[in-house]
Amino acid sequence: MLSDVGLSVLPLAILGMLLVISLQVDAFALDFHNAFRPAGDAVLNGHTPFPPATSEVFSSAKAFVYPPIAAVLMAPLALLPPLVGDVLMTLAVIAGTIAALRVLGVRDWHCYGAAFLWFPVLNGVQTANLSLVFLLALALAWRHRDRAWVVAVAVALAVSLKLFLWPLLVWLLVTRFRTGLLAVGLAATLSLAGWLVVGFGELQHFADLVRGVTAAEQDWGFTPFALARDLGLPTGGAHVVAYALGLGLLVAVAVTARRVGGDRSAFVLAIAASLALSPIIWAHYLVLLLIPLAFARPRLSPLWLAGVLLFVCSPPDFGGAPPATWQVALALGVSTAIFAAALGARMPALGRAAAPASRRSSPPPLGVADGA
To answer: Who's near 88: CB < 8 A, 6+ residues apart?
Structure first.
């Protein structure tokens, strides 16, 4: 009874309070209002969506550093009054979170309440950025993994909007080669379309902006790189640690995918590789942990409350001090525990897409298409 009340009333109360306070302090739909909407408006008016590559922009934590296709897709929302667009985007990410859990097969309503107690989820709602959109896209990719066009479109859209998700292309290429090629082609097409709109002359500007923002913010994220730096490694050594971990996870994707029943584990490892290799991981990126968590615990368990611990990892004001070493370590520890639980959980016999006969009988050779 206590859990029924706590996981129904408390999430609604916290979410409502968060949105009211964010409206009062001019932080409602923060990322959408300050980065995505202006980028969409710039595209509509024939201007570059990218801010100047200056030190002030690098340290503002509000620079639009997404590929241009993101600005193009945001352009219709820029036609709306600002508050209307902010509200619609906020409602969209809330609905996307619920839909993602549903798509992943989570039927225990307590889990939905627990998810909205996660700091990464609440942060994603308050900022109305694309992290919760990626959550839904990857959930759809897994649910419809044997429907070539659906999974290819979902993965291609996610990768073209945020490049750090490119390891999902590796997962597709080693499990469904032809579908993987389709996804690569679609991602390239979407990216090309974006650059055609804003102009290829902006490529160097975009590259300078990404480098500057990465250099300014890389110590602020919840990454293996940031933890290695906190533990005293120089920048070069910390990069080696992060790249080695990411490369190891990518190798594990390829090796695991060749095993009978290894498809889901390869998918989980690809998400882990995306987070490990990303130069910056803000708290809202960690909403992707809901995918391996749904695999590991489709019903409420103590692990569903692990995300609540991430409240103590909430970032301080940018420009002050980056997260403390223990905060970065805690975020990585929670992430590791969830990934480990997903990799150790058995895939349910019911509620999954049927695998082709060749995959049920023997592991596919590397690169051979299945379900494509």
So the answer is: 77, 80
Nearest to 165 by CA among 297, 66, 310, 296: 66
3-state secondary structure of 362: coil
Give per-residue pLDDT as tens, 61-107: 567 889 999 999 999 999 999 999 999 999 999 999 999 999 999 99
Taking the C-alpha atoms of residue 169 and residue 184, their distance in angstroms, rounded to an integer, is: 7
Q: How many CB atoms lie under 10 A from the CB of residue 244?
A: 12
Tens of pLDDT, residue by residue over 112-135, are: 999 999 999 999 999 999 999 999
Element containing residue 26 per DSSP (H, E): none
109 near 9, Cβ under 8 Å?
no
pTM: 0.89
Asked if 304 contacts 297 with a C-beta cutoff of 8 angstroms, the reply is yes
Asked if residues 269 and 252 have their Cβ atoms less than 8 Å apart, the reply is yes
- Report the half-sphere exposure of 312 (CA within 13 A, side-chain side): 12
| CB 27, CB 19: distance < 8 Å | no
Q: Residue 113 has which token pair?
A: 């309440």
* C-alpha to C-alpha distance for 30 and 149, rounded to whole angstroms: 33
Distance CA 154, CA 156 (A): 6
Beta strands in 179-330 (DSSP E): none
